[in-house]
C-alpha cells in the first residue's frame, strides 16, 4: 500500500446521507487502477445511509445510488474517477457538489455535479488528467467521462501544482461574491472564483497577494469563508475588493458610566457618505445602532460614537463604510467589555409609577429587591424570560432600594429610587 491520497472530506447532504471522497490509494499514476475499478472504494465519491444499518454492516445503501443494480460496481459508489479530491463541498443554497481534484503531472481540476443529478458519473482519472489523456489503456473515448468545469496548468504564474477546494460564497457581507465558488492553489498561492449557472460559466483568477500553503477552507454559520495556511497556522478571512477608498488607522471602544464610547480614525477617505455602526452580542447577528456622516477631510479624520451599554457585559462592534455611489465595505470587528460594575438593567432608575421596568437580553433565574438595611422585600422567578420585564412595587415607601438579578454565572446589581 501507499501513504498518500487517502481522502479529502466528509459531508452530510440535504438528503441526510453521508458523502465522502476517497483518493486513489496513492503513489503516482494510480498503478493499481483503483479509480476506475468498480470493486474498489478508492478514487470515488461514496454515499451511504448511516441512520439505518444492514445485516452485514453498520450502514445501508440509499435505494437511488446510481450503481446499486450494477454487479460490477460497489453499491456505495456515487461517482468514479477521482485521483486526490482535496476538499469538496456542497453549495449551502443549491446543494450542488463542488470537488477539487489534485492532478498528477500537468493539470489541476474542479469537478461539479448538480444537486438534481442522480445519474452515474465517472470523472475520468486515470484515463484522463482533467481533459487531457493520461493513461488511456483499457479506457473509453473521452466523451464517455464527465469533464471538469475548470482546469489549470502546472505553473506558478497563472496556475499552480496542487488545488485546494473551497466553498460557494453565500454570505451577506460581500454581495459581489455571492454565488462564486472560491478556491486556491497550495503551491503557487493563486486563487480563483468560478460561477456556474444554467447558461454560462465564468472563472476569474484573482489579483493581489494571497498566501501559499492554503490547505483547507471553512464556512461559518453566516456564510463567511475562511482559509487556513498549513505552514504558518494562520486563518484568513475571504473578503471582496469593494472599491471603497478607505484606510482605518485605529478602532477602539471603552465603557464609561455604562455608555460605550467608540472611537476610530482614518487617513484615507474619498467620496464616502457615512459610517453605519452595528452591534452584536454573539459576533454573528448584528443590528444597526446609528449613523455617523463621513468628513472626507484630506488631513485625516477622527470619529466618536456613543451607545448605551445597558446590562451587556460583552458586545461586538463594527461599522459599515458606505460610499456615495452605493458601494460599501466593513471595518474589523472589535470586542468591548463592560467592567464598570454598575451595569444598568432598569430604565428608568427613578420609579414614580410603582413599576420596575427591567431590560435584559440574557436569561436570569431570579430577581431580589432589598432595602438599604439589607432586608429582603421581594423575590421573583424570572427564569427563561428576556426582553422587558415589568415588576409591580405599588406599596414601597419613598427611598433608595437595591435590585439584584442573578443566575449561575453571577449577579447584576442596581440601585433604584422610589418616589
Walkthrough of the structure:
The protein is mainly β. 0% of the residues lie in helices and 46% in strands. The chain is built from no helices and 33 strands. The strands form 9 sheets. It has a 5-stranded mixed beta sheet with strand order 1-2-3-4-8, with no helix packed on it. Strand 32 and strand 33 (410-418) form a beta hairpin. It is elongated and about 95 Å long. The N and C termini lie far apart (84 Å).
Write a concise synopsis of the structure shown.
This protein is mostly beta strands. The chain contains no helices and 33 strands. It is elongated and about 95 Å long.
Features:
33 strands; elongated; 5-stranded mixed sheet; about 45% strand; mainly beta
Envelope shape:
elongated
Q: Terminal Cα separation, in Å?
A: 84 Å
Largest sheet: 5 strands, mixed
| Rg over C-alpha atoms, rounded to the nearest angstrom | 29 Å
Low-pLDDT windows of residues: none
Helix content: under 10%
**Strand adjacency order, main sheet:** 1-2-3-4-8
Number of strands: 33
State which percent range the strand residues make up: over 45%
Quickly count the helices: 0
The averaged pLDDT comes out at: 89
Please identify the structural class as seen in this structure: mainly beta
Draw up the topology in text.
Blueprint: E1 7-12, E2 18-22, E3 45-48, E4 77-80, E5 85-90, E6 97-101, E7 107-113, E8 121-122, E9 128-129, E10 132-133, E11 150-153, E12 163-168, E13 180-185, E14 191-196, E15 201-205, E16 214-219, E17 225-229, E18 235-237, E19 246-256, E20 259-269, E21 272-280, E22 287-293, E23 301-308, E24 314-323, E25 328-330, E26 334-337, E27 350-351, E28 355-360, E29 366-371, E30 376-381, E31 387-392, E32 399-407, E33 410-418
Parallel strand pairs: 4-8, 27-33
Antiparallel strand pairs: 1-2, 2-3, 3-4, 5-6, 6-7, 7-11, 9-10, 12-13, 13-14, 14-15, 16-17, 17-18, 19-20, 20-23, 21-22, 21-24, 24-25, 24-26, 28-31, 29-30, 29-32, 32-33
Amino acid at each position: 500500500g501507499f501513504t498518500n491520497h487517502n481522502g479529502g472530506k466528509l459531508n452530510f447532504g440535504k438528503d441526510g446521507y453521508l458523502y465522502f471522497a476517497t483518493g486513489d490509494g496513492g503513489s503516482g499514476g494510480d498503478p493499481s487502477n483503483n479509480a476506475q475499478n468498480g470493486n474498489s472504494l478508492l478514487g470515488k465519491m461514496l454515499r451511504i445511509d448511516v441512520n439505518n444499518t444492514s445485516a452485514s454492516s453498520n450502514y445501508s445503501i440509499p435505494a437511488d445510488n446510481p450503481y446499486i443494480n450494477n454487479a460490477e460496481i460497489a453499491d456505495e459508489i456515487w461517482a468514479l474517477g477521482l485521483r486526490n479530491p482535496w476538499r469538496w463541498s456542497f453549495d449551502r443554497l443549491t446543494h450542488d457538489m463542488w470537488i477539487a481534484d489534485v492532478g498528477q503531472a500537468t493539470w489541476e481540476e474542479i469537478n461539479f455535479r448538480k444537486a438534481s443529478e442522480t445519474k452515474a458519473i465517472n470523472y475520468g482519472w486515470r484515463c484522463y488528467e482533467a481533459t487531457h489523456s493520461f493513461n488511456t489503456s483499457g479506457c473509453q473515448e473521452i466523451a464517455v467521462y464527465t469533464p471538469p468545469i475548470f482546469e489549470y496548468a502546472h505553473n506558478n504564474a497563472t496556475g499552480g501544482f496542487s488545488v485546494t477546494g473551497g466553498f460557494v460564497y453565500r454570505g451577506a457581507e460581500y454581495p459581489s461574491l455571492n454565488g462564486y465558488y472560491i478556491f486556491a492553489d497550495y503551491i503557487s498561492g493563486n486563487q480563483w472564483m468560478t460561477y456556474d449557472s444554467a447558461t454560462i460559466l465564468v472563472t476569474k483568477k484573482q489579483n493581489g497577494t494571497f498566501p501559499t500553503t492554503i490547505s483547507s477552507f471553512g464556512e461559518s454559520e453566516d456564510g463567511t469563508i475562511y482559509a487556513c495556511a498549513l505552514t504558518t497556522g494562520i486563518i484568513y478571512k475571504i473578503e471582496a475588493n469593494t472599491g471603497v477608498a478607505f484606510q482605518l488607522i485605529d478602532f477602539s471602544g471603552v465603557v464609561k458610566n455604562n455608555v460605550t464610547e467608540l472611537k476610530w480614525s482614518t487617513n484615507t477617505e474619498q467620496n464616502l457618505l457615512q459610517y453605519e455602526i452595528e452591534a452584536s452580542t454573539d459576533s454573528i447577528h448584528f443590528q444597526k445602532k446609528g449613523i455617523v456622516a463621513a468628513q472626507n477631510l484630506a488631513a485625516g479624520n477622527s470619529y466618536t460614537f456613543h451607545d448605551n451599554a445597558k446590562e451587556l457585559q460583552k458586545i461586538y462592534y463594527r461599522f459599515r463604510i458606505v460610499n456615495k455611489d452605493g458601494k460599501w465595505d466593513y471595518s474589523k470587528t472589535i470586542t468591548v467589555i463592560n467592567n464598570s460594575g454598575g451595569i444598568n438593567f432598569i430604565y428608568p432608575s427613578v420609579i414614580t409609577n410603582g413599576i420596575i421596568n427591567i431590560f435584559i437580553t440574557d436569561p436570569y433565574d431570579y430577581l431580589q429587591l432589598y432595602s438599604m438595611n439589607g432586608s429582603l422585600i421581594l423575590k421573583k422567578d424570572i427564569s427563561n424570560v428576556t426582553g422587558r420585564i415589568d415588576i409591580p412595587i405599588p406599596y414601597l415607601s419613598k427611598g433608595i432600594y437595591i435590585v439584584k438579578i442573578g443566575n449561575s454565572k453571577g449577579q447584576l446589581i442596581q440601585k433604584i429610587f422610589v418616589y
